[in-house]
Amino acid sequence: MTAGLWTFYGTLVVAGAAFTAVLLKLIIVLSHRRGWLDYPDYRKRHAYPVPPLGGVAIFVVLWGAIFVLMQVRPEALALFRHDSVTIFAGAIVIFLLGLYDDFRPVRAEGKLIMQTIVCIWLWVNGLGIFQLWVPTVGGVALGVWSLPVTLIWFILLVNAINIIDGMDALAGGVALIGLISVMIIGVRVQVADAVVLSLILAGALVGFLQYNRPPARVFLGDSGSLSLGYFFAVLALWLPIKRYTVVAVYVPILAVLVPLAESAWSIFRRLARGRTPTAADRGHLHYRLLEQGFTAGGVRLLFYGLSLIGVAFSLAVAYGNRRFWLVGFAIFVLSLCGGLYMLLRTPRGK
Fold first, then answer.
1. Distance between CA atoms of 284 and 225, rounded to whole angstroms?
2. Range of the domain at 58
3. Using CA atoms, how far apart are residues 340 and 334, in angstroms rounded to an integer?
4. Residues 48, 52, 282, 337: is their CA dihedral positive or negative?
5. How far is Cα 176 from Cα 143, in angstroms, rounded to an integer?
6. Residue 277 lies in a domain
7. Mean pLDDT of 74-103
8. Is 151 helix (H, G, I), strand (E, B) or coil?
9. pLDDT higher than 50, residue 244
10. What does the pLDDT average to over 284-290?
């Protein structure tokens, strides 16, 4: 890459962080004046009321930057432009759903219905999983299974960040690490749009984490966590399935390994108990680890470490022997699941 391109990319991150920080400062002051605060309860461990509107700043900066770039540097988002209206329409619905839920909790069934409608909207407009790339086999057409598979993928990813958003700097930090993988793979498959979008969002998250690190002065809120999940879900639907090989299909999974696994497990656990998949509870891994005696900092480091391992595997799949690294990844996941199962079964203090 040329020096000019590096400068452009750096400007995206710095500007994203700066604008987000400024907006958050205003949001925090206004939220305290208006009483727009998230109060502690039986599921929430924070000690004092905190504004839950960090997602507002992230959403405004991300889409504001996209709009500006489309006007002043359209070549930077040449591929994205074609589907931008479709993606933005879905983003608005998901953002407003989360924002409404931050003030007036929405029933889990209502969230699931709205997310399903958005997924169908994307699928009808060509953003879906129409064939599945299987290592050593190649592309397998899904036919009538396309919409169900797309819906499962979408629901898992949209809710993934939201599910781990239970501690200061946890969800934002994990999402930021996942974006590293997306950016590098965007360079690998020579799709500048993916790099640009990821850099803008990474900058916004850097600005957000300045206010979300312990003790947090602002939370993502559902508007932020659902919007971040939507970004990862749509990126996987928009970019790889139609144009690229197994690299682009599996990398988004590895990039958000921790929240995706937590999302899948939470949905399975709730369905097994006869509950709605998106219903809230305290059975998430970070809560369980805290109950086992882990410190909040220890839980964050564990999640960050696992996320970095996911990024490492994604890069290995992209640049190395795909079959070897995917098998290695499967062994790692099984070992991790076994280790966590044994850890969480051990009574506290043993």
1. 15
2. 3-345
3. 10
4. negative
5. 35
6. yes
7. 95
8. helix
9. no
10. 76
